[in-house]
Amino acid sequence: MNNQTDKIVNLSHLILNKIICCLDDNIDRFCFSLVCKRWYKDRDKYLILNLDNIFIRGVNNTDLKENNDSFRLPAYHNIFMKSIQSKTNCTLLIGKKLTYRSSYDFIFENARDIIAIPSYISTVAVFTQLSESDNQYLYQMMSESRSVTELIGYRSLKYKIPNTITKLSTTFNFNEPLVKGSLPNTLRHLFLDSDINNDFEVGVFPEGMTKIELIHNFQFELKPGVFPSSLKILILPNYRFTLKPGVLPNNLYKLRYSGEKTTLVEGVLPESLRILDIASAYWLEGPASVLPVNLEQLTLNDKYCTDLLPINIKTLPPKLKVLHFHKSYQLIGSIPTSVNDLHLAECQFEFNELFPPTLQYHFKQFKYSNSEILAIPPNLKIDRLVVEGSFAKPITSLPSGIESIYLGMSIQGVPFSGNFIPATVREIRLPYSGMMLPTLPNTIESLDLGENNLERSINMIPPSVKTLTFSESTKKVQPPEHFIKNFTNIIYQNYYGYGGYRVRKLTDQFSLVYLDSNEQLFVHIVNQKKIERLLHHLTHFKSKV
Question: Where are the domains positioned within the chain?
Answer without folding.
Answer: 13-85
